[in-house]
Amino acid sequence: MADAIAALGQATNGTVDSELRGAGEALDGRITATAKPHGVVDSLVISPGALRLAPEALAEEILRAVNGALDDLRSKIGSALPGAPDTAALSAELRDIQERSTERMSAFLSAIETARTAARPEKR
Q1: Which residues face 43 on adjacent strands?
Q2: Is residue 45 domain-shared with residue 92, that is, in the same domain?
Q3: Are 21 and 69 within one domain?
Q4: Nearest CA among 57, 60, 70, 56 for reference residue 24
Q5: Tens digits of per-residue pLDDT, 32-77?
Q6: Which residue of 42, 74, 84, 89 shows the fewest CB atoms closer than 10 Å?
Q7: What share of the chain is helix, strand, coil (3-state, %, to 5)?
């Protein structure tokens, strides 16, 4: 667990160039988005032609551009931070820790209940 916490600390405390940007687009460039570190969408540009789409379709395309920008940014940050932790491995380790701690807490609570029951005087 200490390794997982240390790796997460390293990932969140790593210095990332504040000028770093991720870019995404949809509808062949008629919708573009850029994102900067910490998941902030920096810009969203929608060409007039894209506004002719139905609202649901437009929203879907905007999401595609924004998610593309965020994915691009994540990729760039991963490249900019050598030795960055493998978040998939960290997630798996944290899930394992959560499962083990749940099992231990259940055993602990069961032992407390057993001790409480044993210490309780019998009613006659």
Answers
A1: 34
A2: no
A3: yes
A4: 70
A5: 999 998 878 999 999 999 999 999 999 999 999 999 999 999 888 8
A6: 89
A7: 65, 15, 20
